[in-house]
Design goal:
By secondary structure, this protein is of the alpha+beta class. Helices cover 21% and strands 26% of the residues.
Length: 298
């Protein structure tokens, strides 16, 4: 086993990992230590000097099978499991979200690797939804425990409709080329740690049984606990870094504060399980087949 050293970044989320060369295959003990650190800290940051797309995929495979790049958005050429997160492909995803929650079994973990970073700005914010759940007052926590929410990709999360230009309209058409609607528990139980976390974010658009207006008020209230500064890691990128985060119990946000300077990351995601609520009930799909993106566990 390599000399894994974990340096905590904030009280509620984030740690730097030292002593691990992620450009090389990792032994089982090292992977187990990283999994334990991920369970505790939710997001881990590594030096990734010398890591390429193939190496990023190999590193992510230590944690499970990979998804393809995205259900509807194109991959890096020649690398079907790698999604380019590129400022030249449109606006930053400056909204809070958990990756691909509109499908039945969203990724369990995501890796982001920095390739081109702007001279200033361009941070990624990552929030602990477990800390958010712990912050809820008891009456609100009991209420949230009972709720289920419909997640969908069929809404405009980037810009107001009247501000969309032709290129952005084409990107939106691609993003929604297959429409997905899936119902998940608002409070998800983590399958490894048993922790409860608020499983909401930008793709959660409606509380089951409530009107859109009622849903928005409740979702905004819960979301405010997720994005409390105390629950957020603000990661300032340098080139050749990799951040691994647990997609089951975090949200993230790409800050659009770099004056459209070049910014490029590559994302590789690890296939996940079907979310489960506190009573053991699983999520269920309403619309959209994502089998080309990620296999559904049996």
């Amino acid at each position: 086993m390599t000399d894994v050293r974990i340096q905590k970044i904030t009280a509620n989320i984030g740690a730097r990992v030292l002593g691990v060369d992620i450009t090389r295959p990792l032994d089982e003990e090292t992977v187990a230590a990283l999994r334990e650190a991920l369970d505790v800290h939710k997001a881990l940051a590594f030096d990734a000097e010398g890591l390429d797309d193939e190496g990023q995929q190999a590193f992510a495979r230590h944690f499970g099978d990979l998804t393809t790049a995205h259900p509807t958005v194109g991959a890096v050429e020649g690398a079907p499991n790698v999604l380019p997160v590129d400022s030249e492909r449109g606006r930053a995803a400056n909204h809070w979200h958990t990756d691909v929650t509109f499908v039945l079994n969203p990724p369990q973990a995501s890796t982001l690797r920095s390739i081109t970073v702007p001279p200033y700005g361009g941070e990624t914010l990552i929030a602990s939804s477990a800390a958010a759940y712990r912050d809820l007052p008891e009456p609100l926590r009991r209420f949230a425990d009972t709720l289920w929410a419909e997640h969908t990709n069929d809404y405009d999360y980037a810009v107001p409709q009247e501000e969309i230009d032709e290129e952005q309209a084409a990107q939106r058409a691609q993003f929604t080329s297959i429409k997905y609607r899936t119902v998940h528990p608002v409070v998800r139980v983590h399958p490894l740690t048993g922790e409860r976390g608020l499983f909401v974010g930008g793709f959660a658009q409606r509380i089951v049984g409530l009107s859109p207006g009622e849903s928005r008020k409740i979702l905004d209230l819960l979301q405010a606990y997720v994005t409390r500064p105390e629950n957020v890691l603000r990661w300032r990128w340098s080139e050749n870094q990799l951040v691994l985060f647990d997609n089951r119990i975090t949200q993230h946000y790409a800050v659009d504060n770099y004056d459209r300077a070049p910014r490029r990351l590559h994302r590789v995601t690890v296939a996940g399980d079907v979310p489960v609520g506190i009573e053991g009930k699983e999520s269920y799909a309403i619309e959209g087949d994502a089998s080309h993106y990620t296999p559904v566990p049996v």
